[in-house]
Predict the structure.
Amino acid sequence: MSEQKDRFVLGIETSCDETAASIVKNGEEIVANVVASQIESHKRFGGVVPEIASRNHVEQVTIVLEEVMAQANMSFKDVNAIAVTEGPGLVGALLIGVNAAKALSFAHQIPLVGVHHIAGHIYANQLVGKLLFPCLALVASGGHTELVLMKEHGSFEVIGETLDDAAGEAYDKVARTMGLPYPGGPHIDRLAHEGEPTIKLPRAWLEEGSYHFSFSGLKSAVINTLHNASQKGETIAPEDLAASFQESVIEVLVGKTLKAAEAYGVKQVVLAGGVAANKGLREALTSAFVKLPEVNVTIPPLSLCTDNAAMIAAAGTIAFEKGIRGDMAMNGQPGLPLASYE
Ligand code: KG4
Ligand code: ZN
């Protein structure tokens, strides 16, 4: 029997404020990984400005692609597939990556594969080790907060999602109210470790047995706490407010993940999305699962939690193997739903 040849997939990600390209071998091993962050360009506006994001992607995409090929020491004839984030995200930003991928696919006759951004975040974990099924993913990013059940590779069932704000969005909005720079998540995380959770804030458990989330009430409670204090001329220690907010977010995220893991009898829980970089969440998730030792808990390294293209290449490899193909009609899809590869 002949041995299966190695497969090299080029991943491209431009859905928000990172222009990224990566080459991944067999869906598991990073050969080269380049991320050009635009955070500095958006900081002074306190959030991502879509027009600026698109312009930066146009300027960066060719440079990032040249750099990744040089880093990998490969030419396009060695690339078996090109995987690109098709959605969700900012339409103008997505289009830059999609068009770059289509141009390369056409010019070099390489198969094209569209990837859902959240599938990418989940598959960042496949770069840590092989996924074990059934697998439960806690996805928490700037645009998403979801619990996704995976019975096998490429199968995604959303069993719970946020009814309003995403966890990262709540972090960024609360940080903004507290006068912290964009993106606020890492700043709140840092402050939270210097304070005590002394301020009483709500936890949105929703109805019994629900795996959905809601963070807008918590966000409003923090904003009200700050306004009430300033009206009374009182000051609130920012570290304590950060610690209290973070405790509320983490308790609900971890509590619901634990319940779902038990209910669905999963073998593995993986953490995904930008908020997975949160130190408090990483610690809390690991300690909560001490009571379910049969469940493997995987948390990607920080560089694979925030947006990157290695995760897109990893998810793209599975999609490619399942026969998913894009064509020259591929478009950026801002509201793309997470669908299984079948
Ligand atoms: O996945 P990501 O890079 O982009 C999206 O797909 O949305 O996530 C970005 C989000 C931002 O809201 C950012 O504040 C949050 O992830 N984030 C964090 C931390 N690092 C990044 N939130 C909490 N704690 C962190 N350490
Ligand atoms: Zn993301």
Residues 2 and 124 are 29 Å apart (CA to CA). The first strand starts at residue 8 and ends at 13. Residues 238-264 form the longest helix (27 residues).
